[in-house]
Write a structure and sequence with these properties.
It is built from 13 helices and 14 strands. The protein has 354 residues and is of the alpha/beta class. Helix 7 packs across helix 8. Helix 11 links the parallel strand 13 and strand 14.
Length: 354
């Protein structure tokens, strides 16, 4: 990815502790890692803490730009009001000089204010304008700007210089070794052409149908003598098993125990095929050749940030809607032909073998 270059902002004085809030999805946090890197570059001696949630926090393990990871678990540890009050009291005691709300929801904006930070940065919203000292007032039309660049433009208000747009997801040698051992238990070795398929996603509208995934998997096995690894989340096991039972070829179904294990397994694949999802962004961060199926989401804003990734989508007159309700039954996703994904997979495989 080429370096990010924008108009320089004004550096803030006496910044020793920085709080970054990103408590939404896996892909959201991953697409914030270049902005975190820009903050590290401009405030090299500051201690950077990221406030995340249980789902996405593990992706920051091993990130050299992050010193501490805090977790806010609104459905678990911090469900009770008393626990939430204690959490914010402890947060305030950290005495951050800078707090950055990386998302537009109410929680991160209120958290910047409750943190007591001297400087509070976020995207301008009228209802939360009093919570911020520095507001980014830009607007984006759909289909124009990637989320990585949105985050970089936000922190560029208080930063100078450029930074790479590559996502950061670092695996330890132990995690890679454990993945190789697991693959070996399935008789998969370095000579095996391994294709990882992750058919899940955060919502139904983003999921390409099981039948099409099965058809694609069979073609990949037949044409490339590939071993197909059907990966899924713990609540998506039935989805993966349905694809396996529909396939004519053999495949392996596995639900990784953690996001880290999923990343390690994806890193061992020669090709990954998936929906617009968190695993898609993990594969992109690991620079694994990837084919991603897009439906109603803005693919310009959320396409996988990797030169080894390709997307497949239907151009619909109602795009982009990002709608969880659809009057025409999400034809953009559900009626996407197998041939389109197959052709893109072929081109991606050929490009990776050059």
């Amino acid at each position: 990815m080429p370096p990010h270059d924008m108009k320089d902002g004004n550096l803030l004085p006496d910044i020793h502790k920085i709080l970054i809030i990103r408590t939404d999805g896996i892909g959201d946090l991953l697409n914030s890692t270049p902005a975190i890197a820009l903050l590290r570059k401009n405030y090299p001696t500051a201690e950077i803490t990221v406030l995340a949630r249980p789902l996405n926090a593990p992706i920051l393990i091993g990130n050299p730009d992050v010193d501490k990871i805090l977790i806010f678990d609104r459905h678990g540890e911090h469900q009770q009001l008393s626990k939430r009050l204690r959490f914010f009291q402890d947060l305030r005691r950290e005495r951050f000089q800078l707090a950055v709300a990386m998302q537009t929801a109410s929680f991160p904006h209120l958290t910047t204010f409750l943190s007591g930070a001297t400087y509070r940065l976020g995207r301008y919203q009228k209802r939360f304008k009093s919570t911020l000292t520095h507001s980014w007032r830009g607007t984006y039309k759909k289909g124009e700007t990637h989320e990585v660049d949105r985050n970089l433009e936000l922190v560029n208000l208080i930063c100078q210089g450029g930074v790479s747009r590559e996502l950061v997801f670092n695996l330890s040698s132990e995690e890679k070794d454990d993945a190789q051992k697991l693959l070996s238990s399935w008789n998969i070795n370095q000579d095996t052409y391994t294709i990882g398929i992750h058919p899940g996603g955060s919502s139904f509208d983003k999921r390409w149908p099981e039948k099409q995934y099965a058809e694609l998997a069979d073609r990949l096995v037949m044409n490339y003598n590939a071993t197909v690894l059907l990966l899924c989340g713990p609540d998506e096991l039935e989805l993966a098993q349905n694809i396996q039972s529909t396939m004519k070829s053999d495949s392996i179904v596995y639900a990784p125990k953690t996001i880290r294990e999923l990343g390690a397994l994806l890193s061992c694949c020669n090709l990954v095929v998936c929906n617009d999802s968190g695993p898609m962004h993990i594969a992109a961060a690991l620079d694994v050749p990837t084919v991603a199926v897009f439906g109603p989401t803005d693919h310009v804003a959320w396409h996988p940030m990797s030169e080894n990734a390709s997307i497949v989508r239907r151009d619909m007159p109602c795009w982009p809607c990002s709608a969880h309700k659809c009057k025409i039954g999400w034809e953009c996703t559900k009626k996407l032909p197998t041939d389109l994904v197959w052709n893109t997979a072929n081109m991606t495989i050929e490009a990776s073998q050059k």
